[in-house]
Amino acid sequence: MPPAGQLDDISTMAAVTHDQLRHALELIPEDQMGFKAAALATTPTRIAIHSCSADLSYSNTIDGGSRRAPLSPEDQPSKEALLQLIADTRQSVAELCSGLDEEGLEGERTVRWRQEPVTVRWILMHMIRHAHYHTGQLNYIHFLLGIDQR
């Protein structure tokens, strides 16, 4: 059933968020995908994989699925593979949203980091906030690398 109302808004925000993550990653040169600003900092590769893995995990929480990101940082994937991971994750989240309805947004789920149950809407909005945070990390890496995207 097609999304409507708030679900349509959430689905659109999720798609735009994945597009922003993809764009931020596209701007980083292939030879800088392992860039670390400091010893404990994370790399663009790890950021992309973590963000997508989290989205897939949140999706599993919503519908009981068993999605996993097919890449790990140890694989040292190419930037092209990471961009495909983002596209595949975007599609997976869109399919998840298309299988929900407005009433389904109010369904409660348990997440490991909170004691009380949360709604599906809360999880979807958390997914969007989480991906925006990691897109911001990539944008800061642009600054550190001297990438001017204006």
General description of the model:
The chain is mostly helical. It has a single domain, classed as Four Helix Bundle (Hemerythrin (Met), subunit A), CATH 1.20.120.450. Helix content is 58%, strand content 3%. It is built from four helices and two strands; from the N terminus they run H-H-H-E-E-H. It has a two-stranded antiparallel ribbon with strand order 1-2. Strand 1 and strand 2 form a beta hairpin. Helix 1 packs antiparallel against helix 3. The radius of gyration is 16 Å and the shape is elongated. The chain starts with 5 loop residues before the first helix and ends in a 5-residue tail after the last helix.
In short:
The protein has one domain (6-145): Four Helix Bundle (Hemerythrin (Met), subunit A) (Up-down Bundle). It contains 4 helices and 2 strands, in the order αααββα. It has helices at residues 6-26, 44-63, 79-98, 120-145; strands spanning 108-109, 118-119.
* Rg for CA atoms: 16 Å
Distance between the termini: 40 Å
CATH architecture: Up-down Bundle
* Major beta sheet summary: 2 strands, antiparallel
Averaged pLDDT, please? 93
Assembly form of the protein: single chain
The 3D shape can be described as elongated
Specify the number of helices.
4
CATH class reads: Mainly Alpha
Number of domains: 1
What is the name of the CATH topology? Four Helix Bundle (Hemerythrin (Met), subunit A)
Structural class: mainly alpha
**Helix proportion range:** 55-70%
CATH superfamily: dinb family like domain
